[in-house]
Automatic annotation (TrEMBL):
It comes from the Bacteria. This is LacI family DNA-binding transcriptional regulator. Keywords: DNA-binding, Transcription, Transcription regulation. Pfam families: LacI (PF00356), Peripla_BP_3 (PF13377). PROSITE patterns: HTH_LACI_1 (PS00356), HTH_LACI_2 (PS50932). Signal peptide: none annotated. The keyword Flavoprotein does not apply.
Length: 333
């Protein structure tokens, strides 16, 4: 027999009917425990999963949308991050208003098929990913076969995945241009430069700085407050404080402000700070944080609309939202 590819093949190996295999994989109580365990072991061994999605589509829909946050690059990051909470809130409100339930997942990818398992679970009518992390290639592969998949993240020419997100390169450029207008020349980027969104922010920051004759250094750090704070503290302790700092997110920028305050570095007189996102807390820091705003309310609406179109079998396209510079006290001398 060739490699088992479906439930019928597993049924032959187990010596039972295809219906029994289907019931066993659905954990139906009519299947004896020993039989169920044998079938589950064979299914795992040969990586065969029930096409529950097809079954649910025959029943029209599940009435649920999955919301997942992949954390391949930042395993210590949490849903309590203000950016994620804000975007999740807008998405949840919009989906509930359309009559959908929500299935929320925080995913730390441990194997190549984590996304396949989510979209093939049969528990949702579609899946929204909040961020691409370091999983861009995996998302591309699954997007080729699974239409109701919408992603918050960067857009690349020719990509298969449908994305909604801000112009991160343009946002980074805005930050550099603003710092240059304040007379800042020794610039520092603080954050994780690897994930696509942050990489684009850094690239735009470098472009804007080069055009103004400035230089850019990178302080690579995880995006959690404690780790960002530790990185900036170490930099300051080494006696090298740049006069213009661009943080990859507002959360990181808040850690920058704290480290500077602890070291007695006056903001914005000695060092100016710009963040990214414009979360609610950005206006409450001391001094209030200058930042690059992403329109998360509009972005969430576009993601939901794109999802509804894909579920209905209609075409939907990616959208890149323009960023906006929000000037506050952390960069005004």
């Amino acid at each position: 027999m060739s490699k088992p590819r479906n439930l019928a093949d597993i049924a032959v190996l187990a010596g039972v009917s295809t219906a029994t295999v289907s019931r066993a994989l659905a954990d139906h109580p009519s299947v004896r425990a020993a039989t169920r365990e044998r079938i589950l072991a064979l299914a795992r061994e040969h990586d065969v999963r029930p096409n529950q999605l097809a079954r649910n589509l025959r029943l029209r829909h599940t009435g649920a949308i999955g919301l997942a946050m992949p954390l391949g690059h930042a395993r210590t990051q949490h849903l309590t991050d203000p950016f994620f909470l804000t975007l999740l809130g807008f998405l949840a409100d919009g989906l509930v208003e359309r009559g959908y339930d929500i299935l929320l997942s925080r995913v730390i990818p441990s194997c190549d098929d984590w996304l396949d398992r989510l979209v093939d679970s049969g528990r949702t009518d579609g899946l929204i990913l909040i961020g691409q992390s370091d999983q861009y290639d995996t998302i591309e592969r699954v997007a080729e076969r699974y239409a109701p998949l919408v992603v918050w993240g960067v857009h690349r020419d020719g990509q298969r995945q449908l994305t909604i997100g801000s112009d991160n390169h343009g946002g980074g450029r805005l930050a550099a241009e603003h710092l240059a207008a304040q007379g800042r020349q020794r610039l520092l980027f603080v954050g994780d430069p690897a994930p696509p969104e942050f990489a684009d922010r850094l690239a735009g920051f470098r472009t804007g700085a080069a055009a103004a004759g400035g230089t850019v250094e990178v302080l690579a750090t995880a995006m959690t407050p404690d780790q960002a704070l530790a990185g900036v503290r170490a930099r300051i302790a080494a006696g090298d404080v740049p006069d213009g700092i661009f943080a990859a997110s507002d959360v990181v920028a808040m850690s920058v402000l704290r480290a500077l305050a602890e070291a007695g570095v006056a903001v914005p007189d000695e060092a100016t700070v710009v963040g990214y996102d414009d979360v609610t807390l950005a206006a409450q820091t001391v001094p209030p944080l200058t930042t690059i705003r992403q329109d998360l309310a509009k972005g969430a609406g576009l993601m939901i609309e794109a999802m509804m179109r894909r579920i209905a079998g209609e075409p939907a396209t990616s959208t890149v939202l323009p960023p906006e510079l929000i000037v506050r006290g952390s960069s005004l001398s």
